[in-house]
Amino acid sequence: MYKILLISKQIFSSWEKFEILKRKDFEILQEGNFEDAFDKLVKEKFDLFIAEETPMDFSFKRFLVSVLNQLKIPNLKGIFICSTTRDLNINSLDFEILKTPLKVEELENSIVKLLNLKKRSSIRYIVRMHLGISENKKGTFQTCVTMNISKNGMQISSSKPLSIGKEYYWTFQGSKEMEGLTIKGTVLNKIQEKEGSFYRYGVKFNENCKEEINKIENFLKS
Q: SS3 for 171?
């Protein structure tokens, strides 16, 4: 389990697009106050410290320079500073400046490298589209919405329970580039138990659907 302290004055939902932060082996603690965050950083054991600059907040740089220069924490593997500022002068700790606004790939690559994690074979993109589902391309029903998609599969939200290990036909709806595209995919797992009136599942695309996978990949890159 990796413990990560995130200093950000944005609500946590603003970080939803960063799928890597949702890993089951990550414990994320967010603080919006510098002093409270520093107190936790000293008293608790964190593997990674991420500090995000708030526009027009001049205390951000003062905090980093005055506090982090004095900070020595053995278990801390690294610090990421999400900032527009390039002239920070922090001598005693290794840190990496990530240019804001943050790119999903940049943060993911930095975390994977620092914590020596196994990287996903493909990048996930936050995409919301309706899906028709059927077992044999007949009798489709619109009860699913994509949560994120990669060239290898997707995470979906369903109002009805689906069978783990079963292959379905998935038809994308609501996007000009993907409208009517149908691909076969197997339900691999249930990501979380029923929440409200929806279930979440992980779906892996059938590797033989090469033409459809290419279309999905081109759509994600556009």
A: strand
Q: What angle do CA 145, 147, 148 make, to 5 degrees?
A: 130
pLDDT of 85 over the 80 cut? no
What kind and span of H or E run contains 212? Answer: helix 210-221
CB-based contact 150:122 (threshold 8 Å): yes
Consecutive H or E run containing 220: helix 210-221
In sequence order, what are the beta bridge partners of 97? 81
DSSP SS3 for 215: helix
Give 66's DSSP letter: I
Name the nearest CA neighbour of 20 among 106, 84, 95. Answer: 106
Alpha helices in 103-163 (DSSP H): 104-115
State the virtual CA torsion across 6, 122, 2, 96 in degrees, nearest 10: -50
Amino acid symbol at 61: K
C-beta separation of 220 from 172 below 8 A = no
Helix (H, G, I), strand (E, B) or coil at 42: helix
CA pair distance 40, 76, nearest whole angstrom: 12
Residue type, 58: F
Angstrom distance (rounded) from CA 136 to CA 126:
28
pLDDT tens digits for 115-159?
Answer: 888 655 566 777 888 888 888 766 566 678 888 888 889 989 888
Residue 176: the pLDDT is 79
| Contact call for residues 151 and 122 (beta carbons, < 8 A) | yes
